[in-house]
Amino acid sequence: MAGFPTSARVVIIGGGAVGASSLYHLAKAGWTDCVLLEKNELTAGSTWHAAGNVPTFSSSWSIMNMQRYSAELYRGLGAAVDYPMNYHVTGSVRLGHSKERLQEFKRVVGMGRYQGMDLNILGPDEIKSRYPFLETHDLTGALYDPYDGDIDPAQLTQALAKGARQMGARIERFCPATGVRREGDEWVVETPKGEIRCEIVVNAAGYYAREVAKMFGRDLPMMVMSHQYMLFDTIPELESWSKAAGAKLPLLRDVDSSYYLRQEKYGFNLGPYEGNCRAHWATPDDPMPEDFSFQLFPDDLERLEWHINDAMARVPLLAQANLTKVINGPIPYTPDGNPLIGPMPGVPNAFEACVFTFGICQAGGAGKVLAEWVTEGATEWDMWSCDPRRFTGFEDEDYCVKKGMEVYGHEYAIHFPHHAWPEGRGKKLSAVHDRVAAMGAQFGPYNGWERALWYARPGDDTSEDAQRTWDREGPWFGAVREECLAVRDACGILDLPGFSRFRVTGAGVVAWLSAQITGKVPGVGRLGLAYFADEKGRIVTEMSVARLGEDDVLLITAATAQMHDKEWLLSTLPAGLALVDETEGWSTQILTGPLARDVLVAAGAEADLGKGWLTWQEGRIAGRGVFLMRVSFAGELGWEIHSRVADTAAVFDAAMAAGRPLGLRPFGMFALNSLRVEKGYRAWKGDLSTDYTVLQGGLERFVDWGKEFRGKAALAAEKQRGVTKRFVTLTVEAGDCDPPYMSTLWHDGAVVGETTSGYFGHRVGKVVALGMLRADLAAPGTAVEVEIFGERFPAVVCEDQPLWDAKNERLRA
Ligand SMILES: Cc1cc2nc3c(=O)[nH]c(=O)nc-3n(C[C@H](O)[C@H](O)[C@H](O)COP(=O)(O)OP(=O)(O)OC[C@H]3O[C@@H](n4cnc5c(N)ncnc54)[C@H](O)[C@@H]3O)c2cc1C
């Protein structure tokens, strides 16, 4: 064996399933000069004691992609690296207790089919044919996943490690990374055995990730839960059934009761996600130990009692078994429960692949994604759901603990489109928060900012329970309709704190920006929408650009995009230009509707209100300086009023006081969603993502072929080849529910595309879907079908223009 490596291209810190998979995938991509450091033995963190379940199920498209890839990889891995593994593909049965749960399952069946998987729904009387020992009287159905199963996590890790070593990568065990420092363009990773110089470092340190992140000066948003499963010994009846059937029972998940039950030899493994759960290492009297390798927490069965009883009632066979062992181990959580995979925010040449809650079933896919980030700077699938930059720094300890516990306690919960989870709220409040709250605002968080989703009227049901539906109509529906119609007929005001704002100045700013965006940089005094593509021509982000001066631009982008977009801009910013993040200092109101101008006049606005669409100006309202931008995401005459936070309340009060007699009313994000889909306006990380190119996204009118820009070569080649799928607006004769993200589109019995947004358009009185359709079907008038929760509904492709105000006359009024 060669001596300790003093240099490498990549150093991975952490040798659990995820670190090993990252090393394996880097080596597979040809990056074999990589070293993995593990402070103890491989698997010493969470991996050694994981139950090893490998589901493909997810209601997130990208997470399903990762898990599907893992399952595929694991099926062939043992043979590929000559390391036989215990991987049982038993299938799984996921029980449904409600109509809503079955709807969730049906949606996942549709997504799974689109990913090439044949998941299916079992009626209540079919469940027993898959799982004989079950009480089914209170079930509405089940989801059967034939790809589900369980793997030995230690063997998986060793197999990945072996495969990586065979390709030339190295693993140093009992070798902790104790520090890192930057020297020129290199990282120096310090260990007790010596230093390693490298280009790139990856934090794959599992539940220690926060400690490792501190070496880079980063405060990583995570916390640690304790999670238990129980092993029960042999049950003779199960043994004889299993031997006769020559099979194991499928994995059972009673998701509404929040546990899984797996056959383990001829006994069971029961693993609950209990509501009365326990965070660890979150208080001063419970500090995180420096080393917890191969250790467990003491058993805590009391917390699980309800679930044990429930499982015994569901599978009475379980009551015959003796409990033999409890495993209670640390499991890390980010505030939204998804892992961190991607660039380490604010740190050059450093990446994260850590804080995995389901790191066994995701390790395969995560390794692929991480390796793509490292070797190509981009991923095949849009992976925003796992991108570390989705957290922006406001996530303090208290927030992380509360959200982590909330996610854990609702690990199997359904995520409904009109529901806002209650923990960790109120982190960032608008200057007029109390005012809009008094008007009935029902809030939801956007990058920590509380924004009104809708305004409840007296008597409207504002309970959390009422939000738990897939149906279009809930307590908000009537109110949202009134809000939309006020915007159509008079005027609405949307308080929109937290827009991300970057001011970039310096000689050459226009040339730099022009090389980054597909379209033209607007002239001084004007505004425009700008699209940023990657080298493959895929949509990275969209920003509004206000040209403030010759060498002065203001870029405005989504609240959640703050960290992502800032890093994207900084990654190419030349030395002579300055970028200032002005997000915290400013706030925004959207004032829009045919009477918006009258409202501004009545409010005594000092500004040239005759200035046209896509212009900006400085003005004054209530004696306060404001930026008025003549745009409206709602698609009516309107202005974005940008004011300093200290001035926002005065501006809002003046607009409200002057506007009320004219019919002005506040509106929320649900109404905005309804209004924007009618205009075909795309939302970031739904309609606009790296899953699509700028041309597929129907954004060619924002492409200036006469100049050079990032992604141009790829887009030009795509144009020449012919674009294979196209962005379309559809009207849908839907049933009770609007089509959720990634509902499949059908034509002639085949899947031909997918929706990226779907909502009821109150101005047009129709369900509107935005989506991607096979290019040859994108002609206006083409009839297709949209699969919504398992049922197909007729839809028609609309003209390639907004459904509402097709010629933008109202916008330009
Ligand atoms: C009881 C229980 C059951 C579970 N069951 C499942 C399941 O069925 N399916 C599933 O998908 N997931 C399951 N999980 C979750 C799963 O265990 C984790 O998500 C997964 O193991 C995470 O793998 P990892 O490689 O990211 O982290 P880890 O396995 O924690 O690996 C991180 C490694 O980094 C090393 N390290 C830390 N700091 C340093 C340093 N400074 N230098 C060098 N090395 C360092 C650690 O020693 C450790 O080995 C379960 C978890 C628990 C607690």
Which tags fit this structure?
globular, 813 residues, 26% helix, alpha+beta, 38 strands, binds flavin-adenine dinucleotide, eight-stranded mixed sheet
Description:
The structure is a single chain. This protein is an alpha+beta fold. A hairpin with a 2-residue loop joins β34 and β35 (750-761). The strands form seven sheets. Strands 4, 5, 6, 12, 13, 14, 15, 16 and 17 form a nine-stranded mixed beta sheet that branches. Strands 1, 2, 8, 9, 10, 11, 18 and 19 form an eight-stranded mixed beta sheet that branches. Strands 29-30-31-28-22-32 form a six-stranded mixed beta sheet, sandwiched between helices. It contains 19 helices and 38 strands. The model has no long low-confidence stretch (mean pLDDT 97). Helix content is 26%, strand content 28%. Flavin-adenine dinucleotide is lined by residues 13-19, 37-40, 44-47, 49-53, 176-177, 204-208, 212, 227-229, 293, 327, 329, 331, 354, 356-361. Residues 13-19, 37-40, 44-47, 49-53, 176-177, 204-208, 212, 227-229, 293, 327, 329, 331, 354, 356-361 line the site of flavin-adenine dinucleotide.
